[in-house]
Amino acid sequence: MSVIVLVEHTGGIIKKKNFEAVQYAAQIAKQMGSTVTAVVLGNVADAEMESLGEYGAQKVLHVADSRLDELHARAYTSALVAAAQKESSKVIVTLHDIKGRMVAPRVAVTLKAGLVAGALSYPDMEKGFVIKKAVFSGKAFAYVNILSDVKVIMLMPNTFPVGKVEGKAVVEKQEVSFGDKDFGVKVKAVNKVTGAVPLADADLVVSGGRGMKGPENWGILEDLAKELGAATACSRPVADAHWRPHHEHVGQTGGTVRPNLYIAVGISGAIQHLAGVNGSKTIVVINKDPEAPFFKAANYGVVGDAMEILPRLTAAIKKFKEHHK
Amino acid sequence: MKILVCISQVPDTSTKIILKNNNTSVNSDGVTYVINPYDEWYALIRAIELKESGIATQVHLVTVDRFDVGPVIRKALALGGDEAIRIDADNDDPYETANYIAEYAAEVGYDLILCGKESIDYNNGTTGAMLAELLGVDYIGFATGIQVEANTAVVTREIEGGEETDVCNLPVVISCQKGVAEARIPNMRGIMAARTRPLKVVVPSKITAVTKILTYELPPAKAGIKLVSPDNMDELVELLHAETKVI
Ligand SMILES: Cc1cc2nc3c(=O)[nH]c(=O)nc-3n(C[C@H](O)[C@H](O)[C@H](O)COP(=O)(O)OP(=O)(O)OC[C@H]3O[C@@H](n4cnc5c(N)ncnc54)[C@H](O)[C@@H]3O)c2cc1C
Ligand SMILES: Nc1ncnc2c1ncn2[C@@H]1O[C@H](COP(=O)(O)O)[C@@H](O)[C@H]1O
After folding, report:
1. Is the confidence at residue A261, as pLDDT, over 70?
2. How many other CB atoms are there within 10 angstroms of residue B241's CB atom?
3. Which residue of A has its CA nearest to B220?
4. Architecture of domain B2-217
5. Does this complex have an ipTM over 0.90?
6. Which helix (H) or strand (E) covers residue B165, if one does?
7. For domain A199-323, which architecture applies?
8. How many whole angstroms separate alpha carbon A266 and alpha carbon A275?
9. Do A62 and A174 form a contact (C-beta atoms < 8 A)?
10. Distance from the alpha carbon of residue A272 to the mean position of ligand 1, in angstroms
């Protein structure tokens, strides 16, 4: 009856958002009087898997097939379904990220389980398993009741703070017999944007709009991002004008970000832009027009010329960091 | 080669969301509906391009909706779809929606099924993968480019921190986003032609929903912005540190 959670890794390294998923699963297990079994697929060191105990996992089912180092959605599905059956699980948790969205829906279909994509709350069991999620691109929330016996939850990353407890998970090897179909999609080439912080996962984002005036001015924005360890993003017209690469464009038609801090520089705050960023915890807007709509969605605002403010902000952060070493 | 494009009818982005019936439903009076942008700009246009280049022979459009989608679907037909199918059923449980599309798709038999990366009403991003599982085929999500050669699809897709190129056999379900195609507007010829293209209504086998939306809620108004003087960036840094712990 344990709660199953899929733990992703990149080249054997488990990122923080997965700890959040394990902790989320642990909280649900506690409510249900059950335990957490994490499923790890591919090559990961035992110590790394045991440390999932610090986030509440009692057990890790490890499928050590090196083909699983790459995402193969159908193989991942087979492995999760096998784990769920072995543990007679009623609840399966994944992240609402790229991999999660390619795997969890398949698991849900296989198990005829109701699914909530982008969960923002723990299930309310008193109401009969009801979970909150964002709809209409953040303009509203829906409370979704899962009616089926088995439930699949895709947790929106960065929803809950992550904290450690004492604990060490027991790692158990799991054999899964895969079929050819499980590896039907062949990966031909991988092209990583090197050096930069990946935008979708970024904790901190500095984003520029048309108010930056031209690509030649991005140096001061990148300086700020570097000082903060932030990813850079932009509005759509900026990407359309090729001032910045397309993968940086956020909004309704671009990427979605949910960082702890989003700094918007020279962006007016059109509804289509907000759709991609309004899940950010804290929003700082720098704009020379006090009437810019973005100020309505912001926590902190600075009215003025970005060209002057950006270098000052970078310097202030540098100074702060030196004082707080 | 036959292509099926999954089209969701959604409120235009600029719609103000108003709740009614004790917050159990969303007001649709006076709301302008459009084709979900990912479905129109990327999935549909790429399907049409594949037909224009002689790779595809037919482009069909399918939507699961209780309500008349005439005006919205006509636009999709005007852009170049050959025929449209409305499956007359509820669409707020993703499992239910995917089942209806799968039932229809299996009956006709498509080589390529394209959908959008996410609908801007329910924001699930799960329909494509569910559909693929129901049909027993592969799914490539978040495509940024799609090429079809003979019996294979070569697809670039978003991954964490970059892109990868995948190859797989048809039939396959692919969800589309920016990069797959460039948005177009329908021309006069297309609009005229669309008037005579069929818009079929299909009644599906009944599927029992596995989820149900009980209530909606509007986000709380922002607590009010705190303005910081452009000459005092130290204060901003202190605030971000003290009040939000982000620095
Ligand atoms: C269907 C649809 C989908 C769309 N999808 C997206 C999307 O995904 N993402 C997106 O971003 N947009 C999208 N858009 C476009 C969107 O509507 C806006 O046009 C766009 O976001 C505006 O970009 P911007 O804020 O950079 O530019 P502008 O609106 O031109 O704003 C520039 C801002 O910079 C300020 N400024 C100028 N000079 C300075 C200075 N020196 N210092 C400080 N501030 C300065 C100005 O006061 C202004 O507020 C979409 C539009 C449609 C119709
Ligand atoms: N009711 C529907 N009818 C047809 N296609 C749909 C429907 N809902 C979603 N889709 C398709 O599935 C994609 C992802 O939607 P979703 O999983 O709801 O985010 C959309 O971009 C559409 O292509």
Report:
1. yes
2. 14
3. A140
4. 3-Layer(aba) Sandwich (3.40)
5. yes
6. strand B162-169
7. 3-Layer(aba) Sandwich (3.40)
8. 17
9. yes
10. 9
